[in-house]
């Protein structure tokens, strides 16, 4: 008896493919086309091959030096964002109530910064951090600290970091809170019976159960922070000097300010490949760590210092399943 396969279901997916092709593939091919050409204006292009890419990846060239300077700024900013927001988000999630009327209130308050548009966030902090009329800038200057985010690179970096932490820590906290809510109460009951400390409960119960949501949070925050544009552009415009000129800002200046489409296209393609490569590394490393943690949980007799005895852990896993 032969089985008939109905392929008509692909007709339902076809509109999605067409939308993706129009909104992503066609612009990407246009950028690839510009990256291998040069122009003198008047919409006249001539073949340049891989010349822009060679110049971009050469640190000794002016274009390459400009690219790598912005790249190191981006990597430093993303690293600082992850080091601050992930632990802070976990701490906030642990402090949030698990039940009662306060839960809805806390969730709404935590979600409020995420609802503010990026350009509005930059405008808010542009006013808030001013030394003459801004509450933050005025208060810091009154403490005797010379604070001016448009004149000091350190002040500009600090302001952008604090602004990003204020804007996006809620996302990490909400994801971690969802992971904590998914933990069965039987685990906590067994930990209380065993007399486990709060740190032991966090290390052996809560943190392993949050691995997957932390993977999502790290990936989302890295991609967002590495592609940041609107907030620092509104706040500092990439200054003072080039102190806060990240790759996205430098790319827009190159493409729209100088109308150098060939170099801008080459930079955007390399920029995209860097994001994909780093996200793949993050995903691979954290997935392997998650798989290793799952293997340890599968054989609890080999896990030293566990807060829950092996037999109790097996019973809890069976109940949760």
From TrEMBL:
- Record domain ABC transmembrane type-1: where: 71-282
The membrane-topology field of this record reads: Multi-pass membrane protein
Which Pfam families does the UniProt entry name for this protein?
A: BPD_transp_1 (PF00528)
PROSITE patterns associated with the record? ABC_TM1
Indicate where this protein resides in the cell: Cell membrane
Asked whether the UniProt record includes Membrane among its keywords, one would answer yes
Q: What is its main location?
A: membrane
Keywords (alphabetical) are: Membrane, Transmembrane, Transmembrane helix, Transport
Q: Which residues cross the membrane?
A: 12-36, 75-95, 102-128, 154-180, 213-230, 264-283
Q: Which domain of life is it from?
A: Bacteria
Family membership noted in the UniProt record = Belongs to the binding-protein-dependent transport system permease family.
Mind telling me what this protein is named? ABC transmembrane type-1 domain-containing protein
Q: Per the UniProt entry, what species is this protein from, by scientific name?
A: Methylobacterium isbiliense
């Amino acid at each position: 008896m032969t089985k008939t396969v109905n392929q008509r279901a692909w007709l339902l997916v076809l509109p999605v493919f067409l939308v993706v092709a129009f909104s992503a593939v066609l612009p990407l091919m246009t950028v690839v086309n510009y990256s291998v050409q040069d122009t003198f204006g008047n919409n006249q292009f001539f073949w340049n091959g891989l010349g822009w890419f060679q110049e971009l990846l050469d640190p000794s060239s002016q274009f390459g030096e400009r690219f790598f300077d912005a790249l190191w700024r981006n990597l430093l900013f993303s690293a600082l964002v992850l080091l601050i927001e992930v632990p802070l988000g976990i701490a906030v999630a642990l402090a949030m109530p698990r039940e009662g009327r306060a839960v809805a209130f806390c969730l709404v308050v935590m979600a409020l910064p995420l609802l503010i548009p990026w350009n509005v966030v930059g405008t808010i902090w542009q006013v808030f951090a001013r030394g003459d009329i801004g509450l933050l800038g005025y208060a810091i200057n009154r403490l005797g600290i010379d604070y001016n985010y448009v004149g000091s690179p350190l002040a500009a970096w600090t302001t952008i970091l604090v602004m990003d932490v204020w804007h996006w820590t809620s996302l990490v906290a909400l994801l971690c809170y969802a992971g904590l809510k998914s933990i069965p109460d039987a685990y906590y009951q067994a930990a209380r019976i065993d007399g486990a400390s709060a740190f032991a409960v966090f290390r052996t119960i809560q943190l392993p159960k949050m691995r997957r949501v932390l993977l999502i949070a790290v990936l989302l925050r890295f991609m967002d922070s590495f592609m940041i544009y609107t907030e620092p552009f509104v706040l500092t415009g990439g200054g003072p000097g080039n102190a806060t000129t990240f790759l996205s800002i430098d790319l827009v200046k190159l493409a729209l300010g100088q109308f150098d489409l060939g170099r801008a296209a080459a930079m955007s393609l390399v920029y995209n490949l860097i994001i994909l490569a780093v996200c793949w590394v993050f995903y691979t490393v954290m997935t392997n760590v998650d798989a290793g943690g799952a293997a340890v949980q599968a054989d609890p007799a080999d896990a030293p210092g566990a807060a829950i005895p092996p037999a109790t852990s097996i019973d809890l896993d069976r109940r949760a399943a």
